[in-house]
Write a structure and sequence with these properties.
The structure is a homodimer.
Chain A lengths: L2 E8 L7 H17 L4 E3 L17 H16 L5 E9 L14 H7 L8 E9 L2 E7 L24 E4 L2 E7 L9 H7 L4 E6 L7 H16 L2 E6 L1 E4 L2 E4 L3 E3 L5 E4 L6 E8 L11 E3 L21 H19 L5 E4 L4 H14 L4 E5 L7 H14 L2 E4 L3 H15 L5 H23 L2 E4 L3 H6 L12 E2 L6 H15 L6 H5 L19 H13 L4 H6 L4 H13 L1 H5 L27
Parallel strand pairs in A: 1-2, 2-3, 6-15, 7-8, 8-9, 16-17, 16-19, 17-18, 19-20
Antiparallel strand pairs in A: 1-14, 3-4, 4-5, 6-7, 9-12, 10-11, 12-13
Helix pairs in contact in A: 1-2, 4-5, 6-7, 6-12, 7-8, 7-12, 9-10, 14-16
């Protein structure tokens, strides 16, 4: 059986950073040549970063991306490099089938300049020349993906590339998620190796789902499948790498670690195949006469369910902070478990020197909330300060007294305290250039158990896709990893409370999290109706109340900060619900 | 030439309000029967309201919508009613072409229950029976539209309906925005009348664009085109009605007013046509022996550019407030022009008794800011109160002093004041159940000239898609309409200022709005590159600074409230840019 050395490049591109991405790509191209790779696979849209969203609607962006590709091509060496970019229909192209084929109708009528027809594409280049190109055929338009908003479906007549004597077929991401789709076709055309380049975001369970799909495609195509995925955080998405090579029988030949950047070179034995002579065959450079030995990549084992989420949150936070040009963050430390978890993640992401804690006790704060927060800050080794909110609390209550005369205040005064804290945190953020990390969890955000412009404030919401029960698990996991009570035991043991009135506890307003979280998961993530959830064994009045709270909190979530998505459905681009919405089921 | 009486139903459905929408539809069906209509056209997705967004992903929602349709069908009378609903593929359907045909791949792997294949459809019903159905073929997936996220493309083999002896073809919204598309095909099949049902949102210039498209389709099909559109606000979208009937030669036979609910019955002469015998022909009930006379609808003239925007803002505001169950709103009155405009719109939308103004002077406020705000409140006849922010300002500065020691405060103290005002307004909102209206304009929002959680706060941002220059025009327009200085002359004359430091004026931080607004329009609405804007005659350093400010403010806009869209590109679902974004052009 012929052998080919394939380099899987788990790089971390930055959206819109065309110059920087070219350098990232050039560096890994040089390394692949050094390591004697025949083929180097880079992620989907590596030139632009993924997802570029509406930058794709700017003709200048598409032009600049093509210029960046030219530079990558010019710097390509012996190794055949496959790199994702945005292709543009040139004048000689046939009238293409457009994914959204009426998209220009309205715009033309409004005399807006027409936009270029563009493709999500992969270039093949070597020795300073572009040798071919593939245009993605399956465009995902569900969950967090909007590709039919931008891209035209690629042509069905695709080339095979002969690299080191091996017929290679190209495909991009979603092409692999269809039975009997583009990859099966490449198999029938005689590809011995199919490369699939990806920008595939992480969520819990994705690693298993991804492997099953890659194995199904390898078997279907009766070819080796080389899957490469980027690493890094981009707004709400976290990309986890997990690149792999799978044999035609589904055996995993190599699997790179999740969340780690790097070039992973794999020597792959491929089956003998005779390409369909009716296909265009593109010849790559001949293989080198000799190659250096490379360390086998091996098959990285799973890191464990909680550690996987932990690493996603750390990477997502680090990249959001740094890619936005911040070095430091500020966190309100309440002594509770949510802010403790966020602080621990921030320290892992940025280092203790870059994390600043603020304790803001009120007239209703318990002694333990202060001592627990102080113990946490000491354990984490972070700078912290204490700013009691009483003076502002008293001033504002006095200012509002004439308006509130005789009016019961309850919730209004609770929200007031939460907003005073946001004012303090944002003042520190403004003065010192620290990004404010929000500490709300998914259970709270689901039912609106938060104060808009109060504890809902922040530049990045680290645990917005983490349910309260998972918050506990992640804290325990981190403590185990540390081998000590990094997060103080009392934080984990005391009953959750917002401490906005004397003796307040979460369970006075909400069902216990052991009941709440599973209902939320069924309603929010699985789109089940209230009736279905009751049928699953939950108390009707609780289900009714919880689902109603979720619906009514939509307006708060619409104004909430972004945060890393770790479930199959977060409160971001993957859940688009109207605010005006009278449906109650 | 045969004649048919067509009822155009400009109703105002509410998203998710299936029961309420059935009643709205039943009421207009009864009226159409009374008026002797042969055909009644209701808007696209009238059963569910438009756009239902991710409610469509809930199987229970699709089921409940079908039950609601059953009730509409059961209550249908002699008049053939065309009504938009969500159709679901039944078991005997062929395997359909799916818009996003790989959408299920990933979900199946994650063991999420598979979703029904659904269509954006129109039912034809009469005398208690469903007589046929049409499924939309062109699914918009650009601008504010995401229809390929949800719907499958309709079958190409469509029926003609014979109503009062006239062969009628059905089409839905986007079907009309393609040259030589579904409507041309209906013409070739022998339709004498083509009905196009819509949920077509308003923006400036849309009325003209829409007419041109409807005329093009009528000529192409050589048939009469009856276009019906809903009325009302739904989150950021405002639907303006503007239903019309256009002759095969493009002559406008009838045109209903914008922004007005109602049933508009039109007697239409249609050309003689012989339907293609290979088409399925569905027979509707025979025409009535006699009909009551109806008042001719006539051709509503345009209301003028500024009045059109005014009506859109009033309707968008009224519907957002009321459909969300609020009756009253609260507005911070600064004495400036933005809050004056918002207050005037709110009074037109809700009545003066439902609008509450709050003056919140600071140590830096000018005398005129108070007197102008008081004069405005008096002119509008709205309740108002004054709450000076000094006590909270002093308290917070004192609380922060130890942190800020030796640190220049400038912007931090400005933001602090803005946030104190938001705390006060939200306290009143919480205590009295008043929705807070935000008063930021599009120019400010574009360049981030606002304080996050300060003046950026609110439940609805009435003028978020109105540039500063248009703010002035709208104020003058409203004063002209009133025949007096409803908005005090001084508010219009004084230079804009945030009054957050002594002697502050907008033009110290920003270019004059006469320069800023056109640059913003080219960059934000037309997606031009900075180079192109410079080529259009603007000063390079100004263009550079402005476009950079727009890019950097993305994080603030992501947390801003919704507001009515009145331009072809607002800061909502129609402009999806990443926060992490290093592209600068």
């Amino acid at each position: 059986m012929p052998t080919i050395r394939v380099g899987l490049a788990q790089i971390n591109p930055v959206v819109g950073d065309l110059t920087g991405n070219v350098e990232r790509i050039a560096a890994v191209m040089a390394k692949a040549d050094e390591q004697g790779c025949d083929l180097l696979a880079l992620p989907e849209l590596a030139i632009t970063g993924y997802p570029p969203e509406d930058l794709l609607l700017r003709p200048s962006f598409v032009r600049d991306n093509l210029a960046a590709l030219d530079e990558v091509v010019a710097r390509s060496g012996r190794c055949v490099t496959l790199v994702g970019f945005v292709d543009s229909a040139s004048a000689h192209d046939q009238e293409p089938e457009r994914a959204s084929d009426a998209a220009d109708g309205e715009e033309h009528s409004l005399a807006v300049p027409s936009r270029p027809v563009i493709f999500n594409a992969a270039a093949a280049c070597a020795e300073g020349r572009m040798i071919g190109c593939y245009r993605k055929r399956k465009l995902p338009n569900y969950s967090v993906f909007d590709e039919q908003r931008y891209f035209t479906v690629g042509d069905t007549d695709v080339s095979l590339f002969v690299v080191a004597g091996v017929p290679v077929g190209l495909s991009i991401c979603e092409d692999a998620w269809t039975d009997d789709g583009p990859i099966a076709e490449l198999g029938r055309a005689g590809a011995a190796l199919v490369v699939n380049i990806n920008a595939s975001p992480y969520n819990r369970g994705k690693r298993e789902a991804r492997l099953a799909v890659v194995q199904a495609r390898a078997r279907e195509a009766d070819a080796v499948l080389a899957y490469v995925n980027q690493v890094g955080g981009q707004d709400e998405l976290v990309f986890d790498g997990d690149s792999m090579v799978v044999a035609p029988d589904g055996a995993v030949l190599a699997r790179a670690p999740q969340f780690a950047e790097g070039l992973f070179a794999v020597d792959v034995e491929v089956p003998d195949r005779t390409p369909d002579p009716s296909r265009t065959l593109v010849e790559g450079p001949p293989p080198p006469s000799e190659r250096p030995a490379v360390v086998p990549v091996g098959v990285a084992p799973p890191v464990g369910e909680d550690e996987e989420v932990w690493q996603a949150l750390v990477l997502g936070t680090r990249d959001f902070v740094r890619k936005n040009g911040f070095s430091d963050v500020v966190i309100g430390l309440s002594g509770g478990i949510d802010s403790a978890l966020v602080a621990a993640i921030a320290v892992d992401a940025l280092g203790a020197d870059h994390v600043h804690g603020v304790l803001m006790p009120s007239r209703y704060s318990s002694d333990h909330s202060i001592s627990d927060a102080e113990a946490l800050a000491a354990n984490l080794g972070i700078e912290h300060r204490t700013i009691p909110i009483e003076p502002a609390h008293a001033a504002l209550m006095g200012m509002l007294e004439p308006s509130f005369e005789g009016h019961p205040l309850g919730l209004t005064e609770e929200n007031l305290q939460s907003r005073i804290r946001a004012v303090i945190l944002m003042a520190l953020s403004n003065a010192f250039g620290w990004l404010l990390l929000n500490t709300g969890n998914k259970s709270e955000s689901s039912v609106g158990y938060s104060t808009l412009y109060g504890d809902s404030a922040g530049g990045f919401a680290v645990i917005k896709d983490v349910s309260k029960l998972l918050v506990y698990r992640l804290c325990r996991h981190r403590n185990e990893l540390a081998g000590r009570e990094l997060i103080p035991a009392n934080v984990l043991l005391k009953p959750p409370s917002a401490e906005l009135r004397p003796g307040q506890r979460d369970d006075q307003s909400l069902p216990p999290y052991e009941v709440l979280d599973p209902i939320l998961s069924l309603y929010v993530e699985d789109d089940l109706a209230a009736d279905d959830i009751v049928a699953a064994g939950y108390e009707p009045s609780t289900v009714d109340r919880v689902t109603r709270l979720v619906d009514l909190a939509e307006y708060k979530r619409r104004q909430s900060p972004p945060g890393p998505r770790v479930t199959p459905k977060g409160f971001g681009k993957d859940r688009r619900l109207p605010i005006v919405n009278r449906y109650r089921r």
